[in-house]
Amino acid sequence: MRRRIAIVEDDPAIRANYADALGKHGYEVAAYGDRVSALAAFRTRTPDLVLLDIGLGDEVDGGFTLCRELRTLSGTLPIIFLTARDSDFDAVSGLRMGADDYVTKNVSLPHLLARVSALFRRADAAHAPAQGESVLARGPLTLDLNRFAVSWRGKGVDLTLTEFWLVHALVKFPGHVKNREQLMGEAHVVVDDSTITSHVKRVRRKFEAVDAQFDRIDTVYGMGYRWKSEN
Amino acid sequence: MEIRKLSGALGLRTKIALVALVLLVIPWVGYSYVNAMERLLRQNQEQQLSAMARAVATALQDRPQLMGLRAAAPAGGRPPPAGILSEQMQILLAGLARAGLRIWVIDSKLSLIGTAGDLGAPPPAADETITFGPVERAVRAALRPVFERFLERPVRPAEEFIPNDVVFGGREVERAIDGATTLRRRPAPSGHGVILSVAHPVWVGDTVVGAVVVEENTDAIVSMRNRAFEQLVAVTLISFAAAALVLLLFASRLSWRLRRLRNEAENAIDSQGRVRNLAAGEHARDEIGDLSRSFSTVLERLAQYNAYLENMAGRLAHELRTPIAVVRSSLDNLRLQQPGGETGVYVTRAEEGVKRLETILTRMAEATRLEQVVRSGERERFEVQTVLAGCVEGYAMAYPGRRFKLAMTEEPVSLRGAPDLFAQMLDKLAANAADFSAGEAPVEISLQRTSTEVVLRFSNSGPPLPAEMKNRLFESMVSVRKDRPAGDPHLGLGLYIVRLIAEFHGGLASASNRADRNGVVVELRFPATA
Question: Cys staple from B64: which of A13, B69, B197, B259, with CB 3.0 to 4.6 Å?
């Protein structure tokens, strides 16, 4: 069965380009230019994944509204925000609305496709049992590479796709310092240094929510970050 | 030209005080007036004396026997005895003489026939005519030595006798004997004062038989003039002093207000390019208040414009992101369609161009993002040495062609803020220093701590800063770079970011040339926390 991806984007050129690229990769694509028509279509048929722009025509926060409405339709539907806005505030708001990832529009198509397929894999794996080789264990930390799920001391940590890739990049070689460029490459994003900094900050906070004593992600000033192995 | 230059150099207060000098016209006018009055009085005195001399002469013409002229004696009658004649003359003259006035009569042989009156008698007191108030009296008392030095004092000529030289050598007497009425002023014999004398001939028929001389000293007039003059000077001085004081106070207040406005205007834009509003004269309803308000308006507009410029980078980045996304996704599609091939070269070039554009966008947005981070303002305590040492170690790898020399104080230095941001600031400083340093000399980084401050310095050799840029370097989108390497865009945001982060940590950033003008020092000062 071909997977169906919905794109809600008000710029026709970008919409067409993304639709073409996704279509070429074997996805079925439905493109919408505004919130109302998109929502009407989603009510009749829920897509398998949604790419959402935040500003939709005259509606400055139309994407946020649509995301909330989509979450009432389906709790598990993968949603990616794809937007020109790059402020931390917008990113945090988008993720709080229940989106799975938040990328800015300067993301390249291959990076976007990587995200899309990763999210599909995660959705698939949720129904299948965990396979041994796809699990990376580092002491109290467990990374399920198929489900893109992370657990710390047995408790699940809810990370976005980007955050998962960041953690994965750090954990692969514990103790090694990864600089920001390397982290960007591994997380399939092209952002500025301070965005990486705030990503890492968010990751730390999510771990701290599970375990207040968490201090494994170490900042090496002037170089980057590293995962501290067991003391 | 000279005057203009001079008046340009003087303060407002001095100028207004100089304008007050116009008041000095008043004493001059008064002086002329007093002089005119004195002249009038003298003329009056002359006329009086002339009239009196004429009256006496006329009376003597009618009584030639009093002049000792027997020829004119009535026929048949015996001439009266000389004693009676002299007595009659005395009575005639005494009736006319008054204090300070002397009348004498001589015959044609210049022998004295009769005299009456005394020049030394006291002149009529003039005190009642001009009165003095208490202030004037005080001023007059204070100025007495000056008056005594410059004003001629009326001295009563104590002339007991008619001096011989007056009788025998007096021109007016000679001319009167010759038949002409003559008026003369002569100095009093004591050397002080002037005596006015009028000689009138006494005619009997066609011959002059004698002369009447009326003399009066000018004491009264001099004394009156002096008093008028003293009063004038006193009044003028008092009014001048009062006016000058009032003007001076007014001018002082004006110049104080203007100076305050000037100082505020000067400090309205601080070294970091921030604009403050003016408080001086904000509520005053005069021209200075107007000036202050319109200045405030201008500053407000400037602040808005600055804010607009500072936000422009972020907004521009946001606006450009969508069209760039169109180009990029189109290129990506093209590459997915025909990997390699002839068009591949062009696609690659186009992609490079887009990548460069994105770098620019990322840098432009960085400052905006940072502003947001700074505003959210989460702070923690961190060791500056740890961050600084780590960063400098990293720079050795990041800038292989440059050497970095780090000198840190031994005692622990901690700041409240965000270590990540602090590191970002150090990155910008290092990039700046590395880009501008020339030659082999290392970039010197120092961290010092005083009792109140933490001072961080980045010093690099290289070309000095242009003087006009020194205060603007830390503003958004200001750059002194001339040659920009291709593919490495500089938007003048690096030091702006430094400033933002320094301010987040409560610090101030400044840049200056090295003392030997052989390089540049960027200095950050943070308040030391206990």
Answer: B69
